[in-house]
Amino acid sequence: MRYALYLTPSPHHPLTRAAEAWLGRSAFGHPAGPPTAPTDVTSAARYGFHATMRAPFQLREGTTRDDLMARYTAFCRAHPGVSTRLSVQTLGSFIALMSDDNASLRALATKALHAFEPLRAPLSAAERTRRGEDWLDPRGKTLLNAWGYPYTEERFHFHMTLSGPRPAAATHTAASATFDGLLAQKIPLAFALFAEPMAGAPFDAIAFAGRPL
């Protein structure tokens, strides 16, 4: 079992529902048909529509799910949510919704790192390989060793993934047509706790805005 701390709109926000239709999957248990995206979104759909604030981790030995929920609830009381302006952008080889206020969101993600780090189990050798330890640069390896994930601290980029790597050429245009009308105002986001019951299984939301689902 792995858990992850994400920022998401509310389960019934129009952006959430549009993203679920685009991905062809809902992490909140809503009915979903085939993806409307004009490209392969299998990898993005497995994780659900989200922005990663604390990457997936296993619980440290001696730590329970109740411990995690208590920490999550306390964190949400201290950080009830944010509103940010989003736009369709390209991040590396992916299409994603990105924020115009990455600095503030990076600071919030760093708080999440510190808050949940005491609950995280050390990475296994297989997890280190999956995180790219063999090809990371020295700074990436330092971050991986510190937090179990290399894209943290100054390497954090807030994003809500809408594609797999190297999407079809028409994906950016289609994503803009799908989402731009929903992004005219700032989007309210709150912390959600997601769970992966076994390796390779889809992630599902188990709590939102400090409350179990």
Can you give a write-up of this model?
This protein has helices spanning 14-23, 42-47, 65-78, 102-116, 125-130, 138-147, 171-179, and strands at residues 2-8, 51-57, 82-84, 86-91, 94-99, 159-161, 187-196, 204-208, 211-212. The chain has seven helices and nine strands, in the order βααβαβββαααβαβββ. The strands form two sheets. Strands 1, 2, 3, 7, 8 and 9 form a six-stranded antiparallel β-sheet that branches. It has a three-stranded antiparallel β-sheet with strand order 4-5-6, covered by helices on one side. β4 and β5 (94-99) form a beta hairpin. Helices cover 33% and strands 23% of the residues. It is globular and about 45 Å long. The two termini are 18 Å apart. It is an alpha+beta fold. The relative contact order is 0.26.
Q: Runs with pLDDT <50, length 5+? A: none
**How large is the radius of gyration?**
17 Å
Q: What is the molecular shape?
A: globular
Give the end-to-end Cα distance, rounded to a whole number of Å: 18 Å
Please, what is the average pLDDT? 96
What is the percent of helical residues? 25-40%
> Helix and strand succession?
EHHEHEEEHHHEHEEE
The proportion of strand residues reads: 15-25%
Report on the biggest sheet. Answer: 6 strands, antiparallel
Number of strands: 9
